[in-house]
Amino acid sequence: MAELTQPEVVYSPASLRLWTTLSNWLGFFFQIFLSVLRALGHLPLLSSSSSSSSPHSFKPLPLVELSETDSLPAVEIATVSDSQVADERLPKLTVVLDLDETLVCAFETSSLPVVLRNQAIEAGLKWFELECVASDKESEGKPKINYVTVFERPGLDEFLKQISEFADLVLFTAGLEGYARPLVDRIDKDNRFSLRLYRPSTINTEYRDHVKDLSCLSKDPGRIVIVDNNPFSFLLQPMNGVPCVPFSVGQPHDMQLLDVLLPLLRHLSQQKDVRPVLHERFHMPAWFKKQGIPASGWP
């Protein structure tokens, strides 16, 4: 009870003015601090690991999912600072593009359900029909003709147009030439592909068939990238691969080409060596290791 009988403390007017002044100054500095934080929050981020919603950040390609505990093979590639890159004139980037399920999806016309075809057309997918020479022949020895319905991935023409402005384009498919050549003629009327490679150009390895070897396409392994929905296609050069989401006729609103791949490839075109960037983003060596393919299986 003693504390209740102590005299009440009374503050002088001078003390109150002092506390009021200090409070105002603290509020002023706090407002400055908040303004700095807000300004920093609008800085664009290029890191793919960031969860920022900035328009400059890349959307992830959700194909490769590795736990953070997976051990990665050692990567001995020297990184180059932005200032060093800016001082040098970089050779043009080579972009190797897969065909089926990366740029288009195709069906034998006779086996394509009419309902599925009509739904895709009504949803706005661009399409065309094609006559292709099959690898087998008719009973009379004449070449067999297959009829194919092809759906283009949304944004395909604009994607090829913009990529060709800063990169050399190469078409590399495991499809047979009799099917793929007339198809590519239709989607590449402006001849943006400087080279077209078909199944005979792929190689068979101990682990997978129809692997696409990039070593014959560029003398500079740091300035070539391959985009493919099948990661095993770039088994020989996992550090150069971009595993894209497969495209199917049931995805009429897919925007991977323009919203995901185009910004990423444009960013890679500004790097002296694409491999450190792709390794940090996709961790493909670790992914192949999880599939039972050791690093010793690569060149």
TrEMBL record:
Pfam families hit by this protein: NIF
CDD domains: HAD_FCP1-like
Domain FCP1 homology, chain residue ranges per copy: 88-268
An annotated Gene Ontology molecular function: phosphatase activity
Superkingdom as given in the UniProt entry: Eukaryota
Gene3D superfamilies: HAD superfamily/HAD-like
Listed PANTHER family: DULLARD PROTEIN PHOSPHATASE
Protein name stated in the entry: FCP1 homology domain-containing protein
The organism of origin for this protein: Erythroxylum novogranatense
